[in-house]
């Protein structure tokens, strides 16, 4: 007897809790706008509703069950999402919007897992194809996984007031002849002088033609 197909990772309750929070608290969208995209929702109707909320937010219009319902109706999508009944269910699904950030994190985690499943299938297919160049294949795989990891981590903006004192201190030390590392050593003294070390806030891109040692270089950094 064939085993039933597994459902991809998803969390309907978390998706509904996010949307319910957005409908009952006009400020909740601020906590999730930079975290979630419509395609992060597994259930299509939830993605459509979130897209509607984002559209209203970008237009600086009120966000509540009435405005969302009207916008969906104008776009001809209200029936597709389950009508006003489903919107009311979303509102009733959460007592408050206090935990909307946590709900959004759960939704995002499931999306990342789905992306990894899709990526692993593609990686397996590429690995069976022995006609391609190994370095190019590794580069493609690295880029695919890197893209997923970048999407999984929301960017946290830091006010300039927090960073200026640290920057001034580094500049003063450099001016006096010191070369302080602002982060971890790369293992390459010359590169440390240029970058002042590796910091957690940095996004570094290693670029070169195929087969020139990008993978080996990154592995050296990893073990430094």
TrEMBL record:
The Gene Ontology CC terms held by the record are: cytosol; primosome complex
Q: Which GO MF terms are attached to this record?
A: 5'-3' DNA helicase activity; ATP binding; DNA binding; hydrolase activity
Q: Which reaction does it catalyse?
A: ATP + H2O = ADP + phosphate + H(+)
For this protein, the record's Pfam families field holds:
DnaB, DnaB_C
Per the record, the coiled-coil ranges are: none
TM annotation in the entry: none
**Record's keyword annotation contains Hydrolase:** yes
Keywords assigned by UniProt, alphabetized: ATP-binding, DNA replication, DNA-binding, Helicase, Hydrolase, Isomerase, Nucleotide-binding, Primosome
> What is its EC class?
isomerase
Look up the domain of life of the source. Bacteria
Q: Name one GO biological process term.
A: DNA replication, synthesis of primer
| Listed EC numbers | 5.6.2.3
- UniProt-listed SUPFAM superfamilies: N-terminal domain of DnaB helicase, P-loop containing nucleoside triphosphate hydrolases
| Segments forming domain SF4 helicase | 177-224
PANTHER family of this UniProt entry? Answer: REPLICATIVE DNA HELICASE (PTHR30153:SF2), REPLICATIVE DNA HELICASE DNAB (PTHR30153)
User: Would you tell me the protein name for this molecule?
Assistant: DNA 5'-3' helicase
- Organism (species): Candidatus Giovannonibacteria bacterium GW2011_GWB1_47_6b
């Amino acid at each position: 007897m064939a085993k039933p197909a597994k459902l991809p990772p998803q969390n309907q309750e978390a998706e509904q809790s996010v949307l319910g929070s957005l409908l009952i608290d006009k400020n909740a969208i601020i906590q999730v706008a930079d975290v979630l995209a419509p395609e992060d929702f597994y259930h299509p109707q939830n993605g459509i509703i979130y897209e509607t909320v984002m559209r209203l937010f970008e237009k600086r219009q009120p966000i509540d069950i009435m405005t969302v319902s009207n916008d969906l109706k104008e776009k001809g999508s209200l029936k597709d999402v389950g009508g006003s009944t489903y919107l009311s269910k979303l509102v009733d699904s959460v007592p408050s919007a206090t935990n909307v950030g946590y709900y959004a994190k759960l939704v995002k985690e499931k999306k990342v897992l789905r992306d990894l499943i899709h990526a692993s299938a593609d990686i397996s297919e590429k690995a069976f194809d022995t006609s391609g160049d190994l370095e190019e294949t590794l580069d493609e795989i690295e880029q695919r996984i890197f893209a997923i990891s970048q999407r999984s981590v929301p960017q946290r903006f830091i006010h300039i007031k927090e960073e200026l004192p640290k920057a001034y201190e580094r500049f003063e030390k450099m001016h006096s002849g010191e070369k302080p590392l602002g982060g971890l050593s790369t293992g390459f003294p010359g590169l440390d002088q240029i970058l002042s070390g590796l910091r957690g806030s940095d996004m570094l891109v290693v670029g070169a033609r195929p087969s020139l040692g990008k993978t080996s270089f990154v592995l050296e950094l990893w073990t430094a």
